[in-house]
Fold:
Amino acid sequence: MISQATEILIRNADHILTMDDGRTELRGADIVIRGGVIAAIGPDLARHHPQADMLDAAGCVVTPGLVNTHHHLYQSLTRAVPGGQDALLFGWLQTLYPVWAKFGPEEMRISALTGLAELALSGCTLSSDHLYLYPNGVRLEDTIHAAADLGLRFHPTRGAMSIGRSAGGLPPDDLVEREGDILNDCIRVIDAFHDPREGSMCRVGIAPCSPFSVSRELMRDAALLARDKGVMLHTHLAENDEDIAYSLAKFGCRPGQYAEDLGWTGPDVWHAHCVKLDSDEIGLFARSRTGVAHCPCSNCRLGSGVAPLRAMRDAGVPVGLGVDGSASNDSGNLILEARQAMLLQRVTMGADKMGAREALEIATRGGADVLGRPDCGRLSIGKRADIAIWDVSGIESAGSWDPAALVLAGPTRVRDLLVEGRRVVRQGQIATIDMPRILEEQRRLALFLAS
Structure:
């Protein structure tokens, strides 16, 4: 078993896609890891590191670990729920809110372990999470402890809903909180769990759920608190036509203007979806370096539309990928999300509008930059040893002339995954937790919720 304390040598990879500043690609090369950091990368390093623990990567492509910029991990207990399968966003939410109201701390913990393990198997080493409901004693640390047990780098956000149905909001009244209590709990979890240092395994953000479930005052106060505490801000924005109509009717402006007015633009902010941003809003986000979590599979599943990814990238908007919650995606495979992002741009704009390597770049350094993590998402000396190893000797890649084009010809599951130099996936299996036991608990809880 490889330990973090020893020097590790990933040896003789067929291809290494570094996603460094020069987008360097190497063949037949090695990577040396020391203390959770990349110490060397290049050809023929084995003779200089004879005492290193060897990890053979022959027949493999090595990439930075993928980065997931938007998720609702608790939803892994509510996949393919009848009544919500064919609904638009608002109807889908109204179907699922009563189910989610039954959740407690154990549901949150088990669903987080399941969702994060699924991400890890698809090559993800760093994931955000947007937890915006807290029924029956749930706390944000239910998910934080799960991520620590699994060994994934984590960026949880303390979400919230404060306007219930009786006050004109979308969620039921029993799932909303007092705004003073929300802000106080944001302070509590940031003080307890946020680590701003380079190489941090956990950073906490503040994330009121959406413009249709919290007040303008909470949005403004959340932005002020986040800047006081030095943490990032996250919410849903411009997800579909209903979202735009709500903003125009309630606030008299489009979502981009709403965000700017309340302090929700800047490099410390990222918004989920942004399917319906117009050209002015794209320009605003580019100038302010406001990030976007692009969630193509969820947007397809809910019929929200195709986000203007090409236009955002060309304008300079920071964009990463998000799988979104499993109730609106039914899957949590981040490499497939990269493929879907590429295909949607090609089918709507032309086959030359996005290639495999650009899609992979968005899934790695693109997502890391959106989350304010330039120490992740690329393989170069001094960066964190978050590394995905993909076996391209199997049937998914058979006959591929360019095995480095992973989003074209697979595989869609990693052979090995290292986070901070520790092996989280070994030979295609989760190595850090008892996955069969977790899945049995997942099945039991899902059956209870469905009863």
